[in-house]
Amino acid sequence: ARSRALSRRDSGPPGVAVAPPRRAARARRGSQVAKMATALSEEELDNEDYYSLLNVRREASSEELKAAYRRLCMLYHPDKHRDPELKSQAERLFNLVHQAYEVLSDPQTRAIYDIYGKRGLEMEGWEVVERRRTPAEIREEFERLQREREERRLQQRTNPKGTISVGIDATDLFDRYEEEYEDVSGSGLPQIEINKMHISQSIEAPLTAADTAILSGSLSTQNGNGGGSINFALRRVTSAKGWGELEFGAGDLQGPLFGLKLFRNLTPRWTFSVCAPSFVTTNCALQFSSRGVRPGLTTVLARNLDKNTVGYLQWRWGIQSAMNTSLVRDTKTSHFTVALQLGIPHSFALVSYQHKFQDDEQTRVKGSLKAGFFGTVVEYGAERKISRHSVLGAAVSVGVPQGVSLKVKLNRASQTYFFPIHLTDQLLPSAVFYATVGPLVVYFAMHRLIIKPYLRAQKEKELEKQRESTATDMLQKKQEAEAAVRLMQESVRRIIEAEESRMGLIIVNAWYGKFVNDKSRKSEKVKVIDVTVPLQCLVKDSKLILTEASKAGLPGFYDPCVGEEKSLKVLYQFRGVLHQVMAQDSEALRIPKQSHRIDTDG
Question: Biased-composition ranges for Low complexity (predicted)?
Answer without folding.
Answer: 12-22
